[in-house]
Input
Amino acid sequence: MADEIDWEFVENASPENRRLGEVLRRLEGIHSGDSSLDWQESRRRCVEVFTTQLNSPDNNAAMIRRLQDKEYEIGGDEHLVVRLEDDAGRVYKLTHGDCFGCRPYFSRFDPDGSGKNFHGSINEDPAFYLRRWMLLNHLGEYQSRFEGFLPPEENLRMPRICISQPTIDAPNPSRREIQGALGGFGFVQVSLDAFLNPHSRILLTDAAPRNVRIVNGSIALFDAIASFASDEICAWAFER
Output
């Protein structure tokens, strides 16, 4: 599905996306020389790839020193959240464990009648994680920035990725407000807190009020999940 979107256009949408694109290509180049990353292969190989990036001169050593051993908040299932006193306008999010945030799990069935067909599941693919922020960045002015790779929390764990985002002083929007804002980008609601653009096949999940803000009419998708809808999901959505 990713072939159906102009990634050059997405990458050039902002300086933040150009940086994310550079990091993604660097990972792809190191990982078996194949653009289709398979992070399900040898765990040892995956750790080696990330350790190479962690120790690269291109990694942000100064940022690592600032974030190491800082107190953190648990930001849901996906991140540890760090706030720096000398940078109060941004929040820093660190992946943890061996995971890189979440990805959507689709189920046609909704036995409890909640209206929810997409659920969060563990994501072990760093390429999916980086593309998630690129897709979200290109949907508005609110930008998430790649900061660098950090050492693992424990021995034998994967090194971590750090992103940062501008802080937002705004209340949770209503679901109706979110639907209206995303409608301006061509998205239609297909399930509770899930939206699909039928042309690009970009799927937004977990776009719940707690993960979205609307400031002066502009939407900030600071914790939603962006991916591509499979043929099964598209067929199901168009039948509804």
Q: What stands out?
A: The first strand starts at residue 73 and ends at 75. Residues 2-169 form one domain.
